[in-house]
Amino acid sequence: MKQVFGVMGDPIEHSLSPAMHNAAFRELGMDCEYHAFRVRQKNLREAILGAQAMGFGGLNITVPHKKKALEFTNPDTLARRIGAVNTISFNEGIRGHNTDGLGAEMALWEAGVGIKSSNVLLIGAGGAARAIAFHFAEKGACVTITNRTPEKAEALAEDVGCRHAGLENLKGLLQDSDILINATSMGMHPHIDATIASRDIMHPDLAVFDIVYNPLQTKLLHQAELAGAKPIGGVAMLVHQGAEAFRIWTGQEPPVEVMRKAVLEGLD
Ligand code: NAP
């Protein structure tokens, strides 16, 4: 019998996860199907329990439920520390995972950028920044967090046990950085003319990773290119967080390039 997987969020109609995972299942000849489910916050617990009861193979959890879902799962250590779940497996009860940070690490890795002992300037203190900060700190990166609302950067840095700094000295912070990560929604469609940093404060040895993937070529990435820095787009993170969820659910090596192609077609 076909095994069902899904993503729960609200709204959910623009999710690229069904296309990405269904392409992977097709490629590997697996009798599985992945669907998007719009679930209201008040129904999240019942929806997760229902998925388990109906024998789902696994779930992704997306905005705005990642934090809430923690309450209804037995989270692994990283998801517990992050305080949010983006993947649920049903192999041993209802297990919560968070693959966003690994997705970001893999996006850098495939661009030839290692994070261990690197100075990482992370801009943002929302959900995505939180997952990246915990994962990167655990993997030995020297993370500094900065954010439009400085109190949030300070609170996140305290939770993670890393440094925080004010955005007003971005130029100085970038001089000491190997990797800049934009984990804010700045530059995201429809505000495509916005950028968190411009070319004049970047240096050629900098890797500039924008986790925004719509548009594919953000203004920040364009500025990085002009500065001779290394631009890395957000699609790779989306694909690799999904690939890791696939590994957790199925124990199989995911066809990453097939998944990437499906995402890129979905963004076209
Ligand atoms: P979130 O929890 O709502 O956090 C938003 C962050 O962006 C906050 O730090 C916020 O600062 C900052 N921000 C928003 N507008 C800003 C502006 N005009 N100027 C400066 N800072 C601004 O959102 P999230 O879930 O972390 O997602 C953030 C972005 O990452 C979104 O674009 C999302 O699509 C993308 N994302 C990509 C992936 C991927 O796989 N590539 C995964 C997850 C998320 P304040 O604290 O001051 O409000």
Describe the structure.
Helix 4 crosses helix 5. The chain has a six-stranded mixed sheet, with helices on both faces. It has a six-stranded parallel sheet with strand order 9-8-7-10-11-12, with helices on both faces. The protein has ten helices and twelve strands. Helices cover 39% and strands 18% of the residues. It has two domains: 128 residues, Leucine Dehydrogenase, chain A, domain 1 (Rossmann fold, 3-Layer(aba) Sandwich), CATH 3.40.50.10860; 133 residues, Rossmann fold (3-Layer(aba) Sandwich). The radius of gyration is 18 Å and the shape is globular. It is of the alpha/beta class. Bound molecules: NADP nicotinamide-adenine-dinucleotide phosphate. NADP nicotinamide-adenine-dinucleotide phosphate (NAP) binds next to helix 4, helix 5 and helix 9.
Helix proportion range? 25-40%
Give the rounded overall mean pLDDT.
Answer: 97
Order of helices and strands: EHEHEEHEEHEHEHEHEEHEHH
CATH class type of the largest domain:
Alpha Beta
For the biggest β-sheet, the strand order reads 2-1-3-5-6-4
- Could you say which structural class the secondary elements and strand pairing correspond to? alpha/beta
Strand content: 15-25%
Distinct helical segment count: 10
